[in-house]
Amino acid sequence: MAGKIEGVVASVSSAGNLVTDITAEQLQSKNAPTDQSVTVVCDEHETLGIFPADHNQPPMTYIALIGESGNLELAIVGDSARIMLGVTEGTPVVVKW
Fold first, then answer.
1. Residues 76-89: pLDDT tens digits?
2. Does pTM top 0.90 for this prediction?
3. Total structural domains in the chain?
4. What is the sign, positive or negative, of the torsion defined by CA atoms of 97, 9, 75, 44?
5. Which of 22, 24, 54, 93 is 20–30 Å from 10 (CA)?
6. What CA–CA distances, in Å, run from 13 to 17, 29, 36, 48, 96?
7. Domain range for residue 47?
8. CB–CB of 32/23 below 8 Å?
């Protein structure tokens, strides 16, 4: 594995997205890919790829994205990741590639 960044869920957005303490700058400085070769793990939930905020993924898809905050966020498209995943602040998040 070429790289890894570890963080935690720092807050929950009004839409229910899990906002991590991993910044877009951290991802760029470590040359983290955004394609399917990157895995984002939170609790036992895993997703591939990091999408832009203006993604067009289908409803109910679990994705990682760079949110308006400039941080990595975990989302369920069209629903609350906090409710659907049962994850709370302080839960570890690992980005690996």
1. 999 999 999 999 99
2. yes
3. 1
4. positive
5. 54
6. 5, 25, 25, 21, 24
7. 4-96
8. no
